[in-house]
Amino acid sequence: MPQLNLIDPNVNGNLKSTSSPVTDDHTQPQQHRDHRDQPSDHSSLRIDLNAVNQQLANADATTVVEWAADVFGEGLVMSTSFGIQAAVMLHLVTNVVPNIPIIWVDTGYLPTETYIFAEQLTERLNLNLKVYQSPMSPARMEALHGRLWEKNDVDALNYYDKIRKVEPMQRALKELKATAWLAGLRADQTHHRKTLRQVTQQSGRYKVHPILSWNSRDIYQYLTTYNLPYHPYFDLGYTTVGDWHSSRPLMATDENERDTRFRGLKQECGLHLPQTEEEAKSLDSSSL
Question: What is the end-to-end Cα distance of the chain in Å, rounded?
Answer without folding.
Answer: 17
